[in-house]
Structure formats: C-alpha cells, structure tokens
Amino acid sequence: MKSLNLLIAHLLVLFNFSYAAADTELPVVAVSEFIATIDKDKRYFEKTSKAENFAAMVETQLVKIGRFTLLERNQLDKILTEQGIQQSITNGAALRVDGADYLVYGAITEYSEEARAINTGNFQSTKLITTFGIDVKIADAHTGEIRRAEAVKISHESGSAINTGRFKQADISSNGLVSAQRKAAKQVGALLVESIFPISVVDTFDGDIYLNYGNSILSIGDTLKISRQGRRLVDPQSGKVLGSTQKEVAKIRVKETENDFSIAELIEGEMPSAGDLAKVESSQESKYQTERPRFGKKI
C-alpha cells in the first residue's frame, strides 16, 4: 500500500508539471523552407531529396513536442513577403521575423542511396543505406541572432539482401528517404529544445529517473549526460549573465518513453536530482555533429 501511495504521488507530480507547462505562454516558432541545391541539376527521372516534405516533418515534430506554438507556413510566407526578406533565407542575411520568437531554416546538403556488399565465398550480404544530411539554423526572430547552427547526418538501413547460391532473400523498403527524414526532423526538434527548454530531470523514484520529454525527443536506449548548475557567471563590466558553472554528475540510459516524459536508469555517477540538466550523448536513431555548441535561453 505504501508503494502504491508513493507511485500515485509521483504521478501527480508529473501531472502537475505537464499542466503547468501547458498553462504557460509558449514561444512561437516558424519553420521556413529548407533549400535543396543538391537537387538543382537532377533530371526529371532522378530521385530528389524532397525538401518540401522535410519542412512539413519538422513542423509535425514540433507540434508533437508540445513546448511551442507553431506559426503556420502560409502566415510565415505572408510575413516574409510583407517584410521583403524572402531571399534572406538563401543568402545568409540576419533574419528578423515579426510574429515569431524563433525561426528554423536550413539547407539539405546530402542525399544518397548506397548498396554495401560483403562477399565471403558463396555467401553475399548486401545492405541498402539511405543517407540524408542537412545544415540547420535556429535564429532569434527578434534580433536575427543565430542561436544554433548544426550539421545533422542520418544513415538509415532501408533494405538488405542475402545470397548463398541456392537461397536468395531480399527485404527492401520503398520509403528509406522518408524514414531518414523523420529521424532528422526528430533531431532538429531536439536541437530547438536544447536551445530553449533543455532536457532536465523532473523527479527520481525507486531508482528510476524521470525526464521532462517523451518519445518526441528521446528513444529507448539513448544515453544522456547529467550536469548540475552551480554559480552564475556575470560579466563584471557589463553586468550581463554569461551562464553558470556546470558539474557533470551522472550518465543515464533511457529505458521507457511516454508521450510527455521518459524514464531512465543510472549507468554511471551519482543519482541525479530534480532540476539537473540532461544532454543526449548518443542516440539510438542517429548522430549529429556539433558546429557551434551552446545552450540558448528563453527570450
């Protein structure tokens, strides 16, 4: 009975956290087009990277996260037209967009499908790998400052085949690009989260560690580094708050995901506390390479 009461109490904590998050004013995010210069010289029968589909997937992912208000694409296009800055997205100029707090945009830099074969005597194994890469930028729509600039690269196994001479078997997916794009969209959502509302520990109970994001950001098997904030760092000349000292205290692994929260287990270090920050160290779905790592802050 005591364990049941404790479990109910912790569920109430999670419910109150979700309710409080939903009740606050959320930042407005606009997703612009992703430029696909790699498709420019392709002929009509060649596969393209489907940039318009990827932008829609990013929008869907941000809605699933539930921490942002999404500015409709047609409304964004209207604002850009009225401000006369439609071309700024492609030429790299600083962007200031009325009606939004953050702007997500970028370029598709890589798309390929490659068959990788291994031959050993009469045995042949082949894998079809779909690779999808993007450069994504997250800008402060009020100032035009770029908060994050990242290169995201996804390698997705979209098919396999085995040939032993007498026996042949093939399993090929027709939507390898779609799967790779969805994984990339999930990573873009994670980057925006880290810049505004970092992943953090909500509570701990009976060895379980509860995190404030669910399956829209995290996947089972993901490992995260836990850090604890210390003293604030203030520039003595300008008075500007530069950030805070951070101490790495643990490493955890996600073992269960729900819509709004995840449960992890401790694999190294001390048990985290509520409020500790978490950063994905390795993902089961993909990896992204950091160009300019930083934690942003809410406007």
Itemize the secondary structure elements and their pairings.
Elements: H1 2-23, E1 28-35, H2 51-65, E2 69-71, H3 73-83, H4 88-91, E3 102-120, E4 123-140, E5 146-163, E6 168-172, H5 176-196, E7 201-205, E8 208-211, E9 223-234, E10 241-257, E11 262-269, E12 277-282, E13 287-290
Parallel strand pairs: 1-2, 1-3
Antiparallel strand pairs: 3-4, 4-5, 5-6, 5-13, 7-8, 8-11, 9-10, 9-12, 10-11
Helix pairs in contact: 2-5
Would you give an account of this structure?
With 299 residues, this protein is an alpha+beta fold. It has two domains: 27-197, 3-Layer(aba) Sandwich (Rossmann fold), CATH 3.40.50.10610; 198-293, FlgT, C-terminal domain (Thrombin, subunit H), CATH 2.40.10. 24% of the residues lie in helices and 42% in strands. It has helices at residues 2-23, 51-65, 73-83, 88-91, 176-196; strands spanning 28-35, 69-71, 102-120, 123-140, 146-163, 168-172, 201-205, 208-211, 223-234, 241-257, 262-269, 277-282, 287-290. The longest helix has 22 residues, at 2-23. The model is unreliable at 12-23 and 286-299 (pLDDT under 50).
